[in-house]
Recover the amino acids of this structure.
């Protein structure tokens, strides 16, 4: 029975024990025969029905209670004369830990395992030994096993579901008889080795503490954590008494519940039929966030960044971030000014906001909610990137300065793969943020899909076990427990700098959106919801009943909050009646203004010298050292290759005060072994980043990412938002793999400015080129990026010269035009001798959107071939080998914004009747042609032909021989 509100609560997804009948909880815990049978244990006879059969009958659907009756391994010592029944696995687990580290088990276990009579080499000897099993040492071990059992499985009996009103059943593995204990042991005193802060306790008292710690409104999973220190930390805080909230805390809880409820009911009555994705049923989420931020302020945090989907978002914006009610009501009135910071290109429950959270004691901290599309969990890595950037700026990377909070839905947390990717980031050097507080608003439903059809795991939170995060399941209708778990979660994060999960089990009072009728698919569930009072009402009644506050105080606080909402609503209505603001089209900034991107020769030589100026005693790998040494000769030889040009760009930017972050799979070395941004000592494994030895005031941070595109790119996008002054580069291993992050490209990189007024300067480096490596290592899908280009929302380029790539990166980093840059980078061109630049290309000039043909005589030209990227070198090689002089080859280096003026100028050099053809390696329906073709025709006012591979659903063929034949034919066709 729930002690607070007089209701029973058992999570609907936890199967009940069929045989416990109508015994009370205390009877079930205390009585050795409470289940109607004697479970196997030392000193007890087995039931005539085998235990496995009895437990097998307890299956409920596909979920079942599984027990372990482990057998000793061959040749391994077993317990002498002991039968621990269902929990023998537990004793063996403790023994394994004891053998590995005796201090990792409690004193009772150590004393037992050290006893010569406890172990024997064979099962036969164990079964025939003297009956000393009921000695005091053995009983103490059984009590220790009972304590351990509750720590592992107690959450299965916790009162965490506010919708379950039937009497909860026990769990067979937690019945005292399963541990060889009985009613006669209840008042015996046992050594408990500091359990609950005590050296010795009666079994009755032990059971009481276990019930209070693990089977109340809070169910905790933490025994999957490998660290003994972390497990012990949690145990100390769960198993010791905690004071009830004082009156001030209770009033704060009540106020927050009232504010959350009043806000939702107000919108429900004033804006009937409009979607808002209400928090009703989960109002304790506001209490949780409030308690979390108050704790953060007291511990010195200066900022919190919240990533969340749409459920409850408006409530959080109003009651946590401090967004004005009038502004929210304006959005419901569809009266948003497009000139506002957020823009007007998205629905109100996707918008982000920045504000200040103010605590009752006067403390304050900055708090923001990151804008998010309907793709639910994709906001997680974006928010993590924002936090990482803020932490790096504040106090030299102090991870306590900014707190990441991710709010999830239960179905999304279990169902969306980006959650696992984001969790995997949590302890990686290039991505960690000192621990994230994950809050799951667990509606026990995903749209209309029940948990039985939405996940294979017992809990929605089970994915978090992969990173050994503690998981706190808490009843959303017990707000005092919610406050306690918020404080506990924050303290754990501060102590261990790890992720922690709060599973706020609640319900959704309305449908997925307010226009949906959930009773169609979940009639029984919604009958219970309709009959259930709100958590505010339940809590207020409990406080009044206990005499903590009066009924007048309850109603007065609610009237005051409703009054403020009503006044804001009236003001909004009056403003709307006076006329709507004029909606303005999004105005593009045009091509970014020119900036000086050239560097001095001295700067170039200083940067290149760093490549071989190594720490004393540092041993470079013998295969890498020659590459570094060649770089030092390239400036004088006039053969600067792609990797060296990139090194010059990054190094010179560092000297200009621009921090640079580069991430991707294998990006430190480079997918093609070309970069070597980080060197590893051949003998010691020590790492050295040459560009960080330049003496610059800012750092270069090259990081290898995990094997992910979706979360990895989302993280870099978020990072770029919070550090607009930095050059943020994300590199795909092959450009083809960027489609694994298509959601980020579509929802953030391409459209965030239009939707939310949010600008990012993130740069994508996508290796591209058809080189006979098959359909999955050929194309970065140029056509997809160009299809998303409009209103000059990003720059898309395919440079073919190292010098032009150098100027492109510097222009992007130094300019004020903060919009995404997509660069299709080379593969075979990395080592192509023809694709090199001279020193003067770095010390003079700027990025050129179109590269003219400087070898052709314009008067003799009959055909102009226009292309981008690697195919230029194939065309030029054919022209030279065939000694052709009537064809010019023009390179378009920037695909978007379309270089209309530059291309028109270059084509104007040739005879008006010269044939103009676009040449590309990609199939006709792919590559740049579908985008550039119509623009070139409008520019030249004549038909433009296309030389390409035939239309195809795949980017390239799988046979290298067939590819070579196609490429040869394509190049020849361009000159026929």
């Amino acid at each position: 029975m729930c002690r607070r509100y007089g209701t029973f609560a058992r999570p609907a997804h936890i199967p009940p024990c069929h045989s416990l009948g109508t015994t009370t909880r205390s009877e079930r815990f205390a009585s050795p025969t409470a289940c109607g049978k004697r479970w196997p244990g030392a000193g007890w006879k087995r039931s005539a029905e085998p235990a496995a059969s009895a437990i097998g009958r307890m299956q409920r659907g596909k979920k079942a209670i599984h027990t372990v009756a482990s057998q000793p391994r061959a040749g391994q010592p077993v317990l002498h004369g002991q039968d621990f029944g269902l929990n023998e696995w537990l004793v063996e687990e403790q023994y394994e830990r004891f053998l590995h580290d005796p201090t990792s088990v409690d004193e009772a276990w150590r004393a037992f395992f050290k006893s010569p009579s406890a172990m024997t080499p064979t099962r036969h000897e164990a079964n025939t030994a003297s009956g000393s099993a009921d000695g005091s040492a053995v009983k103490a071990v059984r009590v220790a096993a009972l304590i351990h059992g509750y720590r592992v499985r107690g959450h299965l009996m916790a009162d965490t579901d506010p919708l379950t009103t039937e009497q909860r059943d026990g769990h067979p593995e937690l019945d005292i008889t399963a541990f060889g204990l009985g009613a006669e042991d209840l008042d015996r005193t046992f050594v408990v080795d500091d359990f609950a802060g005590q050296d010795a306790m009666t079994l009755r008292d032990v059971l009481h503490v276990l019930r209070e710690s693990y089977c109340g409104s809070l169910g905790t999973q933490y025994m999957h954590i490998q660290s003994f220190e972390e497990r012990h930390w949690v145990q100390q805080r769960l198993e010791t008494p905690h004071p009830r909230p004082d009156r001030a805390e209770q009033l704060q809880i009540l106020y927050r519940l009232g504010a959350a409820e009043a806000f939702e009911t107000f919108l429900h009555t004033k804006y009937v039929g409009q979607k808002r994705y209400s928090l009703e049923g989960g109002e304790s989420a506001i209490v949780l966030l409030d308690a979390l931020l108050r704790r953060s302020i007291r511990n010195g945090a200066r900022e919190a960044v919240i990533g969340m989907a749409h459920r409850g978002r408006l409530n959080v914006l109003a009651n946590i971030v401090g967004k004005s009610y009038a502004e929210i009501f304006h959005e419901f009135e569809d009266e948003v000014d497009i000139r506002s910071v957020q823009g007007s290109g998205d629905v109100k429950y996707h918008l982000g906001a920045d504000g200040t959270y103010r605590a009752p004691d006067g403390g304050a901290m900055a708090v923001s909610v990151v804008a998010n599309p309907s793709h639910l969990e994709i906001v997680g890595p974006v928010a993590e990137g924002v936090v990482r950037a803020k932490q790096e700026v504040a106090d030299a990377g102090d991870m306590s300065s900014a707190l990441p909070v991710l709010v999830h839905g239960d179905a999304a947390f279990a169902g969306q793969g980006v959650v696992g990717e984001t969790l995997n980031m949590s302890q990686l050097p290039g991505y960690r943020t000192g621990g994230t507080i994950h809050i799951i608003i667990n509606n026990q439903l995903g749209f209309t899909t029940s948990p039985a059809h939405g996940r294979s795991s017992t809990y929605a939170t089970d994915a978090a076990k992969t990173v050994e995060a503690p998981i706190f399941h808490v009843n959303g209708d017990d707000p005092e427990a919610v406050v306690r778990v918020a404080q506990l979660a924050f303290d754990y994060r501060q102590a261990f700098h790890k992720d922690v999960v709060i599973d706020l089990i609640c319900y959704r009072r309305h449908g997925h959106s307010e226009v949906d009728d959930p009773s169609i698919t979940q009639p029984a569930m919604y009958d219970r919801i309709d009959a259930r009072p709100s958590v505010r009402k339940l809590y207020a009644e409990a406080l009044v009943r206990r005499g903590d506050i009066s009924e007048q105080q309850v109603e007065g606080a609610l009237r005051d909050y409703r009054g403020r909402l009503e006044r804001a609503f009236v003001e909004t209505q009056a403003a709307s009646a006076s006329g709507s603001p004029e909606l303005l089209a999004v105005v593009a900034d045009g091509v970014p203004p020119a900036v000086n991107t050239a560097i001095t020769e001295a700067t170039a030589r200083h940067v290149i010298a760093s490549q071989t100026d190594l720490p004393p005693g540092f041993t470079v790998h013998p295969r890498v050292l020659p590459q570094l040494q060649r770089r030092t000769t390239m400036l004088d030889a006039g053969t600067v290759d792609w990797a060296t040009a990139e090194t010059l760009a990054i190094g010179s930017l560092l000297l200009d005060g621009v921090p640079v972050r580069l991430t991707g799979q294998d990006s430190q070395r480079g997918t093609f072994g070309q970069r070597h941004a980080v060197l590893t000592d051949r003998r010691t494994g020590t790492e050295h980043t040459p560009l960080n030895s330049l003496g610059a005031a800012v750092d270069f941070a090259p990081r290898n990412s995990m094997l992910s595109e979706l979360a990895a790119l989302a993280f870099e996008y978020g990072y770029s938002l919070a550090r607009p002054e930095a050059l943020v580069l994300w590199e795909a291993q092959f450009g083809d793999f960027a489609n694994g992050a298509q959601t980020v490209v579509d929802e953030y990189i391409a459209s965030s400015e239009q939707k939310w007024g949010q600008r990012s300067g993130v740069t994508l480096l996508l290796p591209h080129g058809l080189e006979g490596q098959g359909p999955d290592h050929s194309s970065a899908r140029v056509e997809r990026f160009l299809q998303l280009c409009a209103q000059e929302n990003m720059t898309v380029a395919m440079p073919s010269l190292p010098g032009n790539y150098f100027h492109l990166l510097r222009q992007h980093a130094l300019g004020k035009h903060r919009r995404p840059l997509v660069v299709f980078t080379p593969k075979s061109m990395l080592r192509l001798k023809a694709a090199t630049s001279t020193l003067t290309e770095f010390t003079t000039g700027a990025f050129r959107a179109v590269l003219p043909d400087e070898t052709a005589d314009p008067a003799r030209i009959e055909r102009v071939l226009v292309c981008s990227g690697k195919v230029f070198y194939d065309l030029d090689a054919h022209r030279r080998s065939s000694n052709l002089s009537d064809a010019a080859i023009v390179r378009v280096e920037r695909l978007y914004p379309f270089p209309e003026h530059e291309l028109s100028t270059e084509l104007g050099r040739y005879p008006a009747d010269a044939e103009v053809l676009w040449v590309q390696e990609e199939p006709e329906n792919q590559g740049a042609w579908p985008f550039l073709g119509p623009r070139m025709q409008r520019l030249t006012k004549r038909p433009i032909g296309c030389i390409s591979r035939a239309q195809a659903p795949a980017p390239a063929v799988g046979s290298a021989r067939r590819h070579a034949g196609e490429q040869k034919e394509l190049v020849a066709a361009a000159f026929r």
